[in-house]
Amino acid sequence: DVKVTQSSRYLVKRTGEKVFLECVQDMDHENMFWYRQDPGLGLRLIYFSYDVKMKEKGDIPEGYSVSREKKERFSLILESASTNQTSMYLCATQGRLNQPQHFGDGTRLSIL
Amino acid sequence: AQTVTQSQPEMSVQEAETVTLSCTYDTSESNYYLFWYKQPPSRQMILVIRQEAYKQQNATENRFSVNFQKAAKSFSLKISDSQLGDTAMYFCAFMKHRGAQKLVFGQGTRLTINP
Predict the structure, then answer these.
(1) pLDDT in tens, A9-56
(2) pLDDT band at A96 (very low <50, low <70, confident <90, very high)
(3) Is A101 a residue whose pLDDT tops 80?
(4) Rg (CA), chain B
(5) Which has the closest alpha carbon to B1: A88, A98, A44?
(6) I want to staple B17 with a disulfide (CB 3.0 to 4.6 A). Which of A18, A26, B13, B44 is the partner?
(7) What domains sit in chain B, N to C, each tagged with a CATH number?
């Protein structure tokens, strides 16, 4: 089974802090994704990566950046956290094109 | 751009009943994939079923089946003999066949199975 591990299940930070959310996968998947989930809006794509050091913006990249230095790890960075970034963040991987994505358990982030 | 709409924010049925969740989408693509994902209270997003747009036959996975109407851009999920463990948020999602393989999600339907 694919295992996608997100470093924190719950996280509380303060406005203005730099926040790192980590995602690690153990299946050598090329593609990795970061989504945020908000009630009534479903999941929306923030950034994705098709390979090491490669990244592309999703639908809502503002206020976020990402890093993929190694194939198995994809980090989401909130450069200066704001209260409107309080949300659930989900990481996903995809092994090959046209295959389903596999998700981590999510990080519920609160910005105070 | 693609959009996915789930018009039922919440549904509730009795155990063992059959329930149908609705999903419509909009796209100009001719080939694509559609998915239903389930998110129980544990938060783990689980793939329920997958449909390829170029396949006429509706996908089936045990008690879960879909009614895929390509011309109407409709993709409903039917759960037969519902069980307490089916209680979850259900998301419909779209993925293009080519190019950026992001998932485009609907708003979700919260399904409760009552004993």
Answers:
(1) 999 999 999 999 999 999 889 999 999 999 999 999 999 999 888 899
(2) confident
(3) yes
(4) 14
(5) A44
(6) B13
(7) 3-114 (2.60.40.10)
Termini Cα distance of chain B: 41
Nearest to A40 among B4, B45, B107 (CB): B107
How many interface pairs between A and B have CB atoms less than 8 angstroms apart? Answer: 52
Binary contact (B47, A100; C-beta < 8 A): yes
**B35-40 mean pLDDT:** 96
Residues of A in contact with B95 (CB under 8 A): 98
Contact between residue A34 and residue A66 where contact means Cβ atoms under 8 Å apart: yes
- Select the residue of B50, B93, B101 nearest A94 (Cβ to Cβ): B101
Diameter of chain A by CA atoms?
39
CB contact A31 to B (< 8 Å):
yes
Does the domain at A4-111 match CATH 2.60.40.290? Answer given as no
pLDDT exceeds cutoff 80 at A3: yes
What six digits make up the tokens of A18?
Answer: 């730099």
Nearest CA in chain A to B89: A42
Return the amino acid letter for B26: D
The torsion angle over the Cα atoms of residues B45, B47, B52 and B58, rounded to 10 degrees, is -130
Establish if B45 touches chain A: CB-CB under 8 angstroms: yes
Nearest CB among B42, B43, B108 relative to A42 is that of: B108
Phi/psi of residue B10, nearest 5 degrees: -145, 145
